Amino acid sequence: MDFRTKLLFATLLIFAVIHGTQADAMVTGTVFCDQCKDGQRSLFDFPVNGAKVTMTCADNNGQISMSREETTNWFGSYAMRFDGTPDLNGCSARVSGSGEGSMGCGEASGPAQKLRLMFRMFDMEMYTVDPLLAQPANPMQQCPSSSNPVPSPPTQDKSPPPFRLPPIAGIPPLPPQPPVISPKASACPYQKWTTPEYKCYWRWVNPETKVAVAFGMAAARRYGTDMTLWNGLHGRGDPYRTLLREGITALLNSYNSFHFSYHPLGVVQHMNWALMGSTRTVLITALHFIRANSGSGNVTCNFTPCK
Questions:
Q1: Membrane-spanning regions, if any (predicted)?
Q2: Domain check: are 119 and 203 in the same one?
Q3: Which of 12, 165, 213, 252 has the most CB atoms around it within 10 Å of its CB?
Q4: What are the residues whose beta carbons fall under 8 Å from the beta carbon of 43, sequence distance 6 or more?
């Protein structure tokens, strides 16, 4: 992190101390419908509403010492809060059932996932779980049946050669396409996203997209309906403006890299939780976003200047 980011990080820590802290732990994650039943995320998958997620913890003897169940919301996300700071290192989460809104995706489930500690400060802990998979009774018909299909026998083409029109002169070239979504982990701070030479990396949203459209009603009530993402990226000096700036940055990073710390829906959900909570929640969420956007010390920004 550069000097400005470190200074902001220290300032938010001071805010957290002033507003007081309470010992608690939170576990968050998302459930997706594995429509192809291949155990992997694909373009056909979607977040599952109403999926039941069970988290279990085992002691040294392998006996279950703690269990908690939660249901996903319409974003496919779930959150479990624990008072105090329990030891969750040996815990895992899995899809244990389905309910209303799951659209029939819950007849089976993928493997359980271990909890990963993302953040610990002032007796507060944040754990995340890699995406869990719920599966329907049968895979959808559009799914590829095999990664190595058997080739069909060649057939003799008796059709006449196709008629080709002569090239038409004067057609302007197509506009440059944005870079392919990075298969590698990438995390870029807000300064990169406000640099003109990197504007081609904006995906799904653009600088003029309204904050209310990107983040929903809670953001509209706090920031108004006219605030754009571009304006939000230049906010500072206030915990809520800092949260917005880092939340927008996290959303852009999540659209740009499959391996970013947050899924786009997770960014929106954490923003809404913070805006509906206390100032302390705003500060902690902003710290989480800052850490993710800085790469957590081991991920760099993979931007190259746009052509």
A1: none
A2: no
A3: 252
A4: none
Q: Which of 135, 154, 179 is the last residue of a domain?
A: 135
- Give the tens place of pLDDT for each residue, 207-256: 998 998 888 888 888 998 889 999 999 988 889 999 999 999 999 998 88
What are the pLDDT digits (tens) for 4-25?
Answer: 555 555 555 555 554 444 557 8
All residues at 6 or more sequence positions from 306 whose CB lies less than 8 Å from its CB, including other chains: 176, 179, 197, 198, 199, 200, 201
**Which domain-ending residue is among 93, 117, 135?**
135
CA torsion angle 167 172 173 178 (round to 10): -140
Contacts 24+ apart (CB under 8 A), 11-18: 12/239, 12/242, 12/283, 12/286, 12/287, 12/290, 13/121, 13/287, 15/239, 15/279, 15/283, 16/121, 16/122, 16/280, 16/283, 16/284, 16/287, 17/122
Indicate whether 159 belongs to any domain: no
Q: Residue 79 and residue 24: Cα distance in Å, rounded?
A: 13
Per-residue tokens: 260:
């970013």
- Whether residues 129 and 198 fall in one domain: no
Element housing 135 (H / E): strand 132-135
Domain count, the chain: 2
Q: pTM for this one? A: 0.48
Domain of 75 in residue numbering reads as: 24-135
State the DSSP string of 51-109: EEEEEEEE-TTS-EEEEEEEE--TTSEEEEEEES----TTEEEEEEEE-TTSTT--SEE
Residues 99 and 200 in one domain: no
Q: How far is CA 260 from CA 111, 124, 140, 173, in A?
A: 21, 22, 28, 33
Three-state DSSP class for 16?
A: helix
Residue 179 placed within a domain: no
